[in-house]
Design brief:
This protein is mainly alpha-helical. It has helices at 9-42, 46-62, 64-74, 76-96, 105-123, 126-137, 144-172, 176-179, 182-195, 208-215, 237-266, 272-278, 281-304, 306-329, 334-363, 367-396, 398-416.
Length: 430
């Protein structure tokens, strides 16, 4: 009997989502490494590159809720296939247009801002839609682990991007670092279109026994009364608190996503190639801790309920992150600093599954737009971090700039003390 037939269909389905999450971070993270060569070649300053980084996050943040609504209306299969085509096309244009079609510095910056904004908007639906798919495809009480495993995929994608893009840049130039991911994207989305279905009951390999397991214990969850009811989430207290707490966590996340590679090169003095490997460490440790955090969250939810089950790993992860970020930035040895900062990032990922699990408990069938709203809050942090860090670094230094993340991590801990994931919101039909 083939090995895959012993794996539940829901996990086979999710393995394709895992692949999309992995490819997503390969295709969005490469510019943060390639930027080290792009800035001197294209005449772009650190401040200007900060705005280019931020343009992706603007598109990503502004289209979180529309992406979640699209996922709820058109289903995960069509939504992700459509945006995947945009990922591939824009990635190719990012390598082609700057410095060739757009030859002036101002024109190059404008082209990069537009392309990164479009790419951010196209990437926006993946995690709200994925969370909705988890709610549909996995049993109640088993939502944190698959969401956390998807976070592991994104951290592994970012981890591979660091050394891979550094190697490609050194030997073939920064433009090749955008072209190389185009065929990977085509293959991943072809597989998604072939294997994915919107509901488990639609999948030809789904068995009655597994479908019964997935459908059990849903009677007390949020009822579905029509897609327009999602607007009530804007006033739901638990969703608002989760959104604010996710802003605090993602503030730390975006320190690593946007400026960590540059910090290792400029502040700690590592070479491009050495930084390519060292900058992968936070993402690799994050992958391990995200999976562990999701497993712990599901176990605690089954034992203590959704409120404490989500609260405990979130508060633990954010507390550890706040302490380790501060200690790592002031470490006297650069290699010790990298290790401590890697563990700091791992703390944020340990908490990751709790956020998405809590929002799923609260929103039920409205998970896609609810997670889109939560992720909007998270990515507003990226809009702040990308241009703010070089500004603060210019006036106070990189250590002081990045240490602001410690305060944000502890703000997230405080907010989680008031989040009640066991209070589902009550939608009203219009």
């Amino acid at each position: 009997m083939p090995v895959m037939t012993n794996v539940p269909v829901r996990w086979r389905f999710f393995s394709v989502i895992f692949l999309l999450s992995f490819v997503s971070y390969l295709m969005r993270q490469n510019i943060h490494v390639a930027g080290e060569f792009m800035m001197p070649e294209l005449g772009i300053s650190e401040i200007e590159m900060g705005w280019i980084f931020a343009s992706f996050i603007w598109g990503y943040a502004l289209f979180q809720i529309p992406g979640g609504i699209a996922g709820a209306k058109f289903g995960p299969r069509r939504t992700l296939a459509g945006v995947g085509l945009v990922w591939i096309f824009v990635s190719a244009l990012t390598g082609l247009l700057p410095g060739t079609i757009a030859t002036t510095t101002g024109g190059t910056i404008l082209v990069l801002v537009i392309l990164r904004f479009i790419l951010g908007a196209a990437h926006a639906p993946i995690y709200p839609v994925q969370a909705s798919a988890v709610q549909r495809w996995f049993p109640v009480g088993q939502w944190a682990l698959p969401n956390a495993v998807s976070s592991s995929a994104l951290t592994l994608g970012a981890a591979l991007a660091q050394p891979l893009v550094a190697l490609i840049m050194v030997y073939w130039g920064w433009r090749a670092s955008f072209y190389v991911f185009v065929p990977a994207g085509i293959a991943a989305f072809a597989l998604w279109w072939w294997y994915a279905r919107d509901y488990p009951s639609e999948h030809p390999a789904m068995t009655p026994g597994e479908l019964k397991t997935i459908s059990a214990n849903r009677a007390g969850l949020t009822p579905e009364v029509g897609i327009s009811a999602w607007r009530l989430l804007l006033r739901d207290p638990e969703t608002i608190k989760l959104t604010l707490a996710y802003f605090a966590q993602c503030y730390v996340f975006y320190l690593f996503f946007t400026w960590f590679f540059h910090y290792l090169v400029k502040e700690l003095g590592f070479s491009i190639l050495e930084t390519g490997f060292l900058a992968a460490l936070p993402w690799m440790t994050g992958a391990v801790m995200a999976t562990l955090g999701g497993w712990v969250c599901d176990r605690l939810c089954r034992r203590y309920g959704a409120r404490l089950g989500c609260r405990i790993p979130a508060m633990f992860g954010l507390s550890a992150s706040g302490v380790l970020l501060y200690v790592g930035l002031y470490a006297p040895n650069p290699y010790v600093a990298v290790c401590l900062l890697s563990l700091c990032f791992a703390g944020t990922q340990f908490a990751e599954g709790a956020f998405w699990c809590a929002q799923t408990y609260v929103a039920g069938p409205y998970t896609a737009p609810a997670c889109g709203l939560m992720n909007t809050g998270g990515n507003l942090a990226g809009i702040v971090v990308a241009p703010l860090m070089p500004y603060l670094a210019l006036h106070f230094g990189w250590v002081v700039a990045l240490s602001t993340g410690s305060a944000m991590a502890f703000l997230g801990v405080l907010l989680w003390a008031f989040i009640k994931a066991d209070r589902p919101f009550t939608p009203v039909a219009h």
